[in-house]
Amino acid sequence: MIKLPKYRLIQPAFFWFFGVVFLPFNLSAQVNPESIALAKNVPIADVHMHTYEQNPRSATWWREQMDNNNVRWGGAVGDYRKDVQAELKERYIPAIGQVAFFKVFFKDGPQGLMDLENPIFLNFYDRAEKLFESGLVKGFGEFHTDNHTSGHPRIRRVIKTDNPAMRKFYAIAQKHNGFIQIHAEFNKDFEKDILSLSADFPNVTTVLSHCLSTNDANVLASLFNKRKNITCEMSATGEVINKLLGLNKQPIAFDSKGPFSDWKKLIEAYPNQVMIGTDPCCGAERGYSKLITELRVNFLPYFSPDILEKLAYKNAVRVFQLKEPSPL
Ligand SMILES: [Zn+2]
After folding, report:
1. How many domains does the chain contain in total?
2. From the CA of 157, how far away is ligand 1's center (Å)?
3. 30 C-alpha to ligand 1 centroid (Å)
4. pLDDT value, residue 152
5. Ligand 1 centroid to residue 71 C-alpha, Å
6. How far apart are CA 18 and CA 23, in angstroms?
7. Residue 312 within a domain
8. Kindly report the CA angle at 182 between 67 and 41, in degrees rounded to 5?
């Protein structure tokens, strides 16, 4: 679980020329003065908001957490809960499939997750089709295809992302302009797979959970550059989640001094392909307000107002076809 310390790249440079010597200046990220107030109040779409069935938080509890933090929309990962949907109405981003994925994994192992004909999946495809057709569901996720360094050891795994079962999920989502949220770690095989899937199913938006938890933001730049239907979300890339879960991990993309320079550059280059989330999993939901405050203080104000709004909710409104809810 312990990751190597994050090496903070040297900030974009001011180079002063003295004879033949270039001296790099290492500037900390600066908040954008126009964005501080906006970051505190901007509506947020939390696109990695788990509302697990087995945890004791009621649908009302979730709505109140969202109301208290001006989170207008939330979801896009499992569990799909009818009671949460009834409570949140158009504020819910309904995603299905995480429960089926876990059932198959515990019954048939990693091979089962790639099996188009797995009996649990066969049953699930039909249910998914009906929910998409009725407009009750907009996507699939969170599908863990490679979480070999994160999560409980019991659930760690690596499977090929481009596999027959995954292609079936993409085919269903393709018919409904849906999304698929995938939790993976970057390597060359994953890159090839996700580029194939996103080319073969152009109506589907892929959301990469935790922006792949990568220490190299450039790998995302390469994917974003090649495919406009690949996006990512920033949950679990700051410091607060690690504190809440008692993990001895370095933050991936931002800390109390703001976003790391390579991440800031990535987002400024591809502002339409990044969203935000909290990942209130495994007990972290008790710190929901802290997770949102961290985004409002340590992340959002470092961007221009225009980019800030895209990160906070405008990209999510586009990707998930969200409607403005009635005033809170
Ligand atoms: Zn998650």
Report:
1. 1
2. 15
3. 30
4. 80
5. 18
6. 8
7. yes
8. 25
How many angstroms does the Cα of residue 109 sit away from the middle of ligand 1?
20
CB 316 within 8 A of CB 74: no
**Which helix (DSSP H) or strand (DSSP E) does residue 317 occupy?**
helix 315-319
Which structural domain, as residue segments, surrounds residue 214? 32-319
What's the pLDDT tens digit per position in 187-233?
Answer: 999 999 999 999 999 999 999 999 999 999 999 999 999 999 999 99
CATH number for the domain spanning 82: value is 3.20.20.140
Domain presence at residue 185? yes
Closest CA to 298 of 66, 2, 35: 35
- Ligand 1 centroid to 325 CA: how many Å? 25
With bands split at pLDDT 50, 70 and 90, how would you rate the model's confidence at 54? confident
Let me know if residue 292 belongs to a domain: yes
pLDDT band at 19 (very low <50, low <70, confident <90, very high): very low
Q: Ligand 1 is a single-atom ion; what residues have CB below 5 A from it? A: 142, 279
Give the distance (Å) from ligand 1 centre to CA of residue 281.
6
Give domain status of residue 8, yes or no. no
